[in-house]
Amino acid sequence: MADEQKAPTEEKQTNCLGCGKPLKKLRRYYRNGKLYCTRKCWIKATKSKPQEGEQK
Ligand SMILES: [Zn+2]
Fold this sequence. Notes:
This protein is an alpha+beta fold. It has a domain at about 15-50. The protein is built from one helix and two strands, in the order ββα. A two-stranded antiparallel ribbon has the order 1-2.
């Protein structure tokens, strides 16, 4: 099969990882390559997940 589709390296993140709500243009908090609505959501997401090493 010659149907080779290259997936984009960077996935478009449209939802906040903290609350799961869709991100808006104006309100977004970028941290460690991830997007959140606010710093609170970042902290929430960080604390909710167990530490699985650092990103490579
Ligand atoms: Zn959020």
